[in-house]
């Protein structure tokens, strides 16, 4: 069995309705995924399954989600060892220790193109930093200026399918998969 982390892009179903994590776990169980468990109410799912191709697993989860909740949501899946490598690759360890909610990673379905990262630099505030690592983008947001232009610039249209998680969530998911 392989342990996987699945990140849902959005769990808003419309009209202020959110996906209930027990329903998400039940959906995963219905797919035959083992030991599904969630972290906070923001669409983080950890489970075990037979080793399979990531893209096929993403499609399977997305199809089940749409069937269960009547809405398409992009779902990014990583193997446990890849998640642990992502967490270990945090280029902002000091900032993460000081303000974990100000450091985030945009986890990408496909590696973010170098030209997209370069284009993002124009949106970074003077006290914000970003670093591509392994195809994902780590960002240290400004504590002084909470309305970051960079946050708005890291969407699907510019970078492709991905979803962001702050350091607290990254670290806690790493702990859940054995890190």
Give a quick precis of the structure.
With 179 residues, this protein is of the alpha+beta class. It contains 8 helices and 10 strands.
Write the layout of secondary structure elements.
Layout: E1 2-8, E2 12-14, E3 17-18, H1 21-30, E4 34-39, E5 44-49, H2 54-69, E6 75-79, H3 80-88, H4 93-98, E7 103-108, H5 114-120, E8 129-133, E9 136-140, H6 149-153, H7 156-159, E10 162-166, H8 167-176
Helix pairs in contact: 3-8
Describe the structure.
It is a single chain. By secondary structure, the chain is α+β, with helices and mostly antiparallel strands. It folds into two domains: 81 residues, 2-Layer Sandwich (Alpha-Beta Plaits), CATH 3.30.70; 91 residues, bacterial protein sp0830 like (Alpha-Beta Plaits, 2-Layer Sandwich). The protein contains eight helices and ten strands. It has a four-stranded antiparallel beta sheet, with helices on both faces. It has a four-stranded antiparallel beta sheet with strand order 8-9-7-10. A hairpin with a 2-residue loop joins strand 2 and strand 3. Helix 3 crosses helix 8. The mean pLDDT is 89.
């Amino acid at each position: 069995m392989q342990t996987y982390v699945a990140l849902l892009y959005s769990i808003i179903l419309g009209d202020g309705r959110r996906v209930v994590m027990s329903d998400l776990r039940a959906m995963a169980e219905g797919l035959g995924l083992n030991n599904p468990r969630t972290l906070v109410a923001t669409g983080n799912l950890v489970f075990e399954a037979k080793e399979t191709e990531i893209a096929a697993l993403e499609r399977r989860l997305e199809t089940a989600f749409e069937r269960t909740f009547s809405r398409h949501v992009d779902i990014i899946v990583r193997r446990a060892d890849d998640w642990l490598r992502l967490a270990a690759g945090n280029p902002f360890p000091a900032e993460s220790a000081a303000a974990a909610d100000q450091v985030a990673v945009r986890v990408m379905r496909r590696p973010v193109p170098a030209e997209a990262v370069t284009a993002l630099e124009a949106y970074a505030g003077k006290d914000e930093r970003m670093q591509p690592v392994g195809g994902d983008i780590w960002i240290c947001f400004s504590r002084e200026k909470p309305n970051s232009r960079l946050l708005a610039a890291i969407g699907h249209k510019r970078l492709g399918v991905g979803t962001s998680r702050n350091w607290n969530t990254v670290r806690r998911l790493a702990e859940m998969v054995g890190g």
